[in-house]
């Protein structure tokens, strides 16, 4: 491998700039880091070059650990967006500069210079000054200078960003050709998707310092794993449907699962992607030639020369929630984006307000369904950690966030929610705000019944008591995060487990959450009965080892602890030996009346551990019991 990054992290105060990033770039590969501004991609490039030191992790170039080496000892070529040419030197002198510094003899310098001038297409221009060249030509000089020392790797920081569109397209072809002829591995940083698709052998998509997905351009466009990549790369139609008996259901419309789809459990929610070009239009259902979705009305129509772009309004489908395109306020149905070729448009011409049958030629089910959070705030001091932590988690996980404001004073609540939205910031998949004047427990119960949630987030202080927590666990199917710590970052979690199925559920959701944070974990089981025999202890150790392996599949590093004695004392002791930001506990099963009661062990733990947030996991057994009680009401 030319480049290996192992668990690289970079922080500026509490801000996570690069988050536990690992990456391998093969010899001769053209790799593109793609992401929005502020995603951390340039920081990664600077870390590879040695211009910035990582706070954690290692950088290896051709198997050599260069993490602690200075830039000049790494043998990297760097091309900047602003060219960074010496304006008082000729083109030839610029290209030879690095060779001159290294005292390479004149004849060898000139030979290498002439080779590079030919390679970058600037033969005969060696005597010109940079000011006498076009922007594209200056960038070619910068590229030749970076290649002069025959670097092990080539780093390109948005090298085409300062050029106009036509020159960028022309220079892309040259850049790819030059890289292939030189044989050097290259990493290019850009926010331009067309540039990434044109140049890359593989693309890594970044967001908020995290490498979301890596793959070939075709893999990431056709078969993305995450909602972020599906919506970031091109236009996407995304719906929340259901997997049942090996088929994808959008309401009552059943579609077969494609061969490339990952294994899914039965009867689970699924995010379903189909690109605009995968949607068919026809005058009748029989003429579609693919699986029908229904009849819609064309509300927008545009043409760019090679393709026709349509937006169609579809009627609501029971049990289906639209994700993208976003639905305007007040619309009961959902929208679809459609691209048609000139031939398709000619065969079935349409106009705005026409009705047409809609079908899907190809769909893809995302293998990492997006997370959906509810953040609850009443404007009190207790809510402040929930806003800080909830916003951080939603950004890092690119989750969908609903902020629920509770309060009687509508003017004061509106002012608070405005400030809370500013604090939460942007970067999540979607964000909405709801308000309620009802008591806390009723407001939360109504909110969680309105939509499927993965986790509710509320502020927590021991003085607040347990009633709000118990009520929040009484409805819905969500897990519950009690935000207590003043700083948003989660670096390490203590996951407390009982061996068995509920413990597996703790690991599964903790892994889904922690994978987005670059956090480490400790899996701990406490043996309260000292009479446990050796075979039982070995069983517990195997269970924890399996949990560690499960977390590793999420990319979460974990160690295991087996303690003997009192559960509360063991947790307190462990909290003293290491710094944990989060404790993960399983929710106690409902009592004989179907109520959740935290007055026992969990309540004691919540009261005895300070300045730490808690994640309470509802196991499938918990949910089955609760559903049974609800049916019997």
How would you characterize this protein structure?
The protein is built from 18 helices and 31 strands. It has 633 residues and is of the alpha/beta class. The strands form 5 sheets. The chain has a 10-stranded mixed sheet, with helices on both faces. Strands 6-7-8-3-9-10 form a 6-stranded mixed sheet, with helices on both faces.
Keywords, please?
633 residues; alpha/beta; 10-stranded mixed β-sheet; 30% strand
What's the quick description here?
By secondary structure, the chain is an alpha/beta fold.
The average pLDDT score comes to 86
| Overall number of strands | 31
The helix tally amounts to 18
What strand line-up does the widest sheet have? 24-23-22-25-26-31-30-27-28-29
Q: What is the helix content?
A: 25-40%
Structural class: alpha/beta
Quote the beta fraction.
25-35%
Major sheet description:
10 strands, mixed
Low-confidence stretches: none
Task: Give me the Rg, rounded.
Answer: 28 Å
Topology overview:
Layout: E1 3-12, E2 15-25, E3 30-35, H1 41-49, E4 56-61, E5 64-65, E6 76-79, H2 91-101, H3 106-119, H4 135-147, E7 153-157, H5 165-182, E8 185-190, H6 193-199, E9 202-207, E10 210-215, H7 217-222, H8 227-232, E11 237-244, E12 247-250, E13 253-256, E14 268-274, E15 279-282, E16 291-303, E17 307-314, E18 321-324, E19 334-341, H9 342-347, E20 355-360, E21 364-365, E22 372-377, H10 384-397, E23 400-406, H11 410-424, E24 430-436, H12 440-450, E25 455-459, H13 467-472, E26 479-483, E27 492-496, H14 501-514, E28 520-527, H15 534-553, E29 558-564, H16 567-577, E30 582-586, H17 601-608, E31 613-617, H18 620-632
Parallel strand pairs: 3-8, 3-9, 6-7, 7-8, 22-23, 22-25, 23-24, 25-26, 27-28, 27-30, 28-29, 30-31
Antiparallel strand pairs: 1-2, 1-4, 4-5, 9-10, 11-12, 11-14, 11-18, 12-13, 14-21, 15-20, 16-17, 16-20, 17-19, 26-31
Helix pairs in contact: 2-3, 2-4, 3-4, 14-15, 16-17
């Amino acid at each position: 491998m030319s480049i290996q990054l192992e668990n690289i992290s970079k922080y500026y105060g509490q801000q996570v700039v690069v988050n536990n990033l690992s990456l391998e770039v093969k010899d001769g590969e053209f790799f593109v880091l793609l992401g929005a501004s502020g995603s951390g991609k340039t920081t990664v490039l600077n870390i590879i070059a040695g211009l910035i030191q990582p706070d954690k992790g290692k950088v290896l170039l051709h198997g050599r650990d260069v993490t602690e080496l200075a830039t000049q000892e790494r043998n990297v070529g760097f091309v900047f967006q602003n060219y960074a040419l010496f304006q008082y030197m000729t083109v030839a002198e610029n290209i030879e500069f690095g060779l001159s510094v290294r005292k390479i003899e004149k004849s060898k310098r000139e030979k290498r210079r002439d080779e590079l001038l030919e390679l970058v297409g600037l033969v005969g221009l060696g005597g010109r000054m940079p000011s006498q060249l076009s922007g594209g030509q200056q960038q070619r000089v910068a590229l030749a200078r970076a290649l002069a020392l025959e670097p092990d790797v080539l780093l390109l920081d948005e090298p085409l960003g300062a050029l106009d569109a036509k020159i960028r397209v022309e220079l892309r072809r040259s850049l790819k050709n030059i890289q292939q002829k030189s044989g050097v591995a290259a990493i290019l940083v850009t926010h331009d998707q067309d540039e990434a698709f044109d140049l890359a052998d593989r693309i890594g998509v970044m967001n908020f310092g995290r490498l979301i997905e890596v793959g070939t351009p075709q893999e990431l466009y056709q078969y993305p794993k995450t909602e972020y990549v599906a919506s970031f790369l091109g236009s996407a139609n995304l719906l929340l449907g259901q997997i049942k008996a090996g088929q994808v259901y959008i309401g009552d419309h059943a579609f077969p699962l494609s061969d490339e789809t990952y294994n899914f459990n039965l009867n689970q929610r699924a995010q379903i992607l189909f690109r605009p070009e995968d949607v068919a239009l026809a005058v009748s259902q029989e003429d579609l030639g693919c699986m029908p979705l229904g009849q819609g009305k064309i509300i927008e129509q545009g043409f760019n020369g090679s393709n026709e772009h349509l937006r169609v309004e579809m009627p609501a489908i029971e049990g289906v929630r639209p994700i993208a395109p976003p639905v305007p306020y007040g619309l009961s149905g959902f929208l679809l984006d459609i691209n048609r070729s000139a031939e398709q448009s000619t065969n079935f011409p349409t106009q705005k307000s026409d009705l047409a049958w809609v079908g899907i030629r190809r769909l893809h089910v995302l293998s990492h369904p997006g997370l959906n959070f509810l953040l609850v705030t009443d404007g009190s001091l207790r809510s402040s950690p929930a806003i800080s932590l909830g916003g951080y988690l939603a950004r890092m996980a690119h989750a969908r966030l609903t902020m629920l404001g509770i309060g009687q004073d509508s003017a004061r609540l509106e002012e608070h929610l405005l400030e809370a939205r500013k604090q939460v910031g942007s970067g999540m998949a979607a964000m909405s705000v709801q308000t309620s004047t009802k008591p806390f427990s009723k407001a939360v119960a109504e909110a969680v019944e309105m939509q499927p949630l993965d986790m509710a987030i509320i502020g927590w202080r021991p003085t607040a008591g347990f009633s709000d927590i118990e009520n929040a666990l009484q409805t819905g199917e969500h897990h519950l995060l009690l935000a207590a710590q003043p700083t948003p970052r989660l670096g390490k979690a203590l996951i407390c487990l009982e061996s068995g199925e509920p413990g597996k559920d703790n690991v599964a959701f903790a892994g889904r959450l922690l994978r987005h944070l670059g956090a480490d974990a400790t899996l701990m089981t406490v043996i309260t009965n000292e009479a446990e025999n050796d075979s039982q202890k070995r069983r517990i150790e195997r269970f924890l080892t399996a949990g560690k392996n499960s977390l590793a599949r999420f990319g979460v590093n974990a160690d295991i602890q087996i303690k003997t004695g009192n559960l509360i004392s063991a947790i307190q002791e462990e909290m003293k030996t290491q710094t944990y930001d989060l404790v993960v506990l399983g929710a106690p099963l409902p009592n004989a009346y179907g109520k959740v009661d935290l007055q026992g062990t969990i309540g004691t733990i919540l009261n005895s551990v300070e300045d730490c947030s808690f994640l309470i996991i509802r196991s499938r057994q918990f949910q089955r019991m609760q559903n049974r009680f609800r049916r019997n009401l």
